[in-house]
Every structure is written in C-alpha cells, then in structure tokens.
UniProtKB/TrEMBL annotation:
Belongs to the 3-oxoacid CoA-transferase subunit B family. SMART domains: CoA_trans. Gene3D superfamilies: Glutaconate Coenzyme A-transferase. This is 3-oxoacid CoA-transferase subunit B. Pfam families: CoA_trans. The keyword Transferase applies. It comes from Robbsia betulipollinis. The keyword Transferase applies. Keywords: Transferase. InterPro entries: 3-oxoacid_CoA-transf_B, CoA_trans_fam_I, CoA_transf_AS, NagB/RpiA_transferase-like.
Length: 219
C-alpha cells in the first residue's frame, strides 16, 4: 500500500536532527511540522518571514495573519521570530538552512529537480524553490513515485523545466526512500506492503536494488 501524505511526513521527520534549521516547502512538506520527534529541538523556517514555525493550529488557535509560504495558517513556537522576506532569503542564500524538504514533479538520476512548472498549466511562479535548492546544506525531495497514468516521475533526465541541477541526494516517494549516488537511484527502504518489484516497475531512471530492502519506519 502506498504511503499517505501523513506517513510521508512522518518518515521525513526522522531525518530531523537536534539543532537543525529546517525549511519546509509547500504541500506535503509542511506536514512535517506536526511530527517533530520528541527530545529534539529544531527551528522551522518559512520563506515568507517566520523562524520558529509550530504545528498546525487547532480551531481555537487559528490566527489568519499567521501563515506559512503556502498561505496556510500555522502557529509560532516559543522563541519564534517574524521578519520580512528579504531577511528570510538572506538566511537561505547565506547557507544557514541545514535541511530543506521540497515537493517535486520530477527528479532524475543526476539529482536534478523539477518542482515549479508544468507547461500549459497556470502557475504562480517558482517562489523560493530556486534559492532553497542552491542554499541548503541538504535537500530531501518528497513526491509521488508515478503519475496518475502510471508513468514514472523518477527519470533518467527530467523533462519539465528545472528548479535546480544536481542538488538532490535523497528522495521520499509514496512507495520508497531512495538516495542518489553515482548517476543512479539506490533503493534504501520500501513502504509497508509495497514490493521491490512494484518499485522497479515504476522507476524509469537507473535503479540499484540491494539484496535486503527494509520496510520503512515512521516518527
């Protein structure tokens, strides 16, 4: 069974480390804020000008003026700071973000990512994605493994306009956790009840499959 959005966020949350400054992209990545493991302290950054983003608010906590970059209402944790977007991007471009989690349409075996535009469809623009892929120490792409028609989104070469070139080293899909090494996807973990054969069938880019592929764990 493919992972739910919440399970994908829970798996990525295991990659958070104490003291990290983390930027969560629009979409599934924003859910990671709800699953920060106990016992670690991370500061979540939103490029619209918030450092110290907390979990999604309850109905009683909603403040329409407290939003993330995706215009979703969020909370601010103790010690949070609010500032203008120019300062936020100075943090990103200055290399002060330890981990970025971005949604993606396509990722290829070189680590290039397409995440902002599908030709012929209305888009609002790239937003902060180009800065994030250039400025973060580590980037995790989180995405569907295949399109609705079954075609793979893990490719030999991206076909959509690129967000960044050779910048992705780890990918989480609804089927698997993979790293990108030496021009190949390396299968590290599989989703519960998903077979290695299914992952192989849905991966267009070169895929290396170890003898043992453990089942994914979650935060």
């Amino acid at each position: 069974m493919a992972l739910s959005r919440e399970q994908m966020a829970q798996r990525v949350a295991l990659e958070l480390k104490d003291g990290y400054y983390v930027n969560l992209g629009i979409g599934i990545p924003t859910l990671v804020a709800n699953y920060v493991p106990q016992g670690i302290d991370v500061m979540l950054q939103s490029e619209n000008g918030l450092l110290g983003m907390g979990e999604y608010p309850t109905a009683a906590e909603v403040d329409a003026d407290m939003i993330n970059a995706g215009k979703q209402t969020v909370t601010a944790r103790r010690g949070a700071s609010i500032f203008d977007s120019s300062l936020s991007f100075a943090m990103i471009r200055g290399g002060h973000v330890d981990l970025t989690v971005l949604g993606a349409f396509e990722v290829d075996v070189s680590g290039s990512i397409a995440s902002w535009m599908i030709p012929g469809k209305l888009v609002k623009g790239m937003g902060g994605a180009m800065d994030l892929v250039a400025g973060a120490e580590n980037i995790i792409a989180i995405m569907m493994h295949a399109a609705k028609d079954g075609s793979s989104k893990l490719l030999p070469q991206c076909t959509l306009p690129l967000t960044g070139v050779a910048c992705i080293r780890e990918v989480l899909t609804d089927l698997a956790w993979l790293t990108i090494e030496d021009g190949s996807f390396l299968l590290k973990e599989r989703a519960p009840d998903v077979t290695v054969e299914e992952i192989v069938a849905r991966t267009a880019g070169r895929l290396i499959v170890p003898d043992d592929v453990p089942v994914m764990r979650f935060a």
